[in-house]
Each structure stands twice: as C-alpha cells, then as structure tokens.
Amino acid sequence: MAKKTNDIYWNNYLAAATSACSAADYLCECLKTYDLTKIEEMLLKMHVFEHDGDSKRHEMAELLAKAFVTPIERDDMADLSQKLDHVIDSIEEVLQAIYINAVTSITPEAISMAEKISLCTVKMKELIAELPNFKKSDKIHPLVVEVNTAEEECDTLFLKANYEYTKNREGKSPFDVIAWREIYTALEECADACEHVADTIEAVVMKNT
C-alpha cells in the first residue's frame, strides 16, 4: 500500500521531467527552423510547457503539505520539485533572450547547445524514472554521471561559441556580441539546471540508503 501511495509523488516528478524534455525538444525545433516573424508564437507555445511545470510544482507543494509520511524527507522532495521546475524555466528563458534581443538568425553553435540540452533532459528523465527504486537501483549513479558529462560538454560548447562569435566580430555591432553572450549564457544555464537535478537526486540517495 505504501508503494502505491508513493506513486503520486514519483508520477508528479516524471510528469515534470517529461515537460522539460518536451520544452527542450521544442527549443531545438525553434532554433533549427527559426523565423523572427514567428517568435511571439513560439513564446506562447513554450509558455505552455512552463505553465505545466509550475502546475506540477504547485501540485507537489500541496501533496507535501497534506502528507503525514513521505517517501523521502519533505524538504528534499520540495527542493527536487523546485529544481525540476527551474529546468523548464531556464529553457523558456532562452527564447525570451532571443526575443528581447530581436535576433534575426540563429548560430550553428546555439543549435548544438540546444541539442546537448535536449540530451541532458532525456538523461534527467531516465534518472527521475529510477527514483522510485532508489534504495536498490544500480542505474542512478551512472545516469548522474551521464547528466554531469552532458553538462560539461555544454560548458565546452559555451566557451567555444562565445570565443568564435567574439573572434569573428568584424561587421558585427557590440550589441550583437553582447546579445549572443546573453543567449549562450541562457543556454548554458539550462544544462546547469539539469545537473542540479541530478546532483540533488544523488544527494537524496546518499542520505536515504
């Protein structure tokens, strides 16, 4: 009975991770088929994923407020919910940065970073799916490492993208350089957010096994 009762928490996390994957995939789609005239439409669709993430966080908060016993410590569960929500927020902020800076075309480096973020969210979702078995799973640690590795690869892309854009700045305005630095930073934050989820799960497993 306890296991079934706990499913409501695990399913909430999994739904939030699924929304993050969908948001990351949509970000890739937006960047690969970018059209400035459709940016407001893109923002509206992306906000649907962000709103869904917020809903899952509020739902978790209500569950924890009413629960007598939780599968792991209440504060840890709330923290994980917040960090999952932050992943989706960060993905939305990439499109917002593109919109604010009125970007007319997308760099190949930005697309590469978005693809790496999509991979991060997939690995993060696999990690969330393993969470119900955290006391005996042998997959959690390797998945944490995979998320961390993907984040490090995104860091490398971030540095290279900024370097290449600044190095080849001839004919570009200072505004363009600053705008792309902001966009690349927003992309890198998405990978960081996924890593924070993975690190939180690893810490929870260590505390509870």
Layout: helices, strands, pairs:
Blueprint lengths: L1 H31 L6 H28 L7 H27 L7 H23 L9 H28 L6 H35 L1
How many domain units? 1
Flag low-confidence runs.
none
| CATH fold name | Methane Monooxygenase Hydroxylase, Chain G, domain 1
Give the averaged pLDDT, no decimals: 93
* CATH H-tier superfamily: Phosphate transport system protein phou homolog 2, domain 2
Give the proportion of residues in helices. over 70%
CATH level 1 class label: Mainly Alpha
Multimeric state: single chain
Sheet with the most strands, sense and barrel status: none
Give the class from helix and strand content and strand pairing. Answer: mainly alpha
Report how far apart the termini are.
Answer: 21 Å
Counting DSSP H or I runs of 4 or more residues, the number of helices is 6
- What's the helix-strand series? HHHHHH
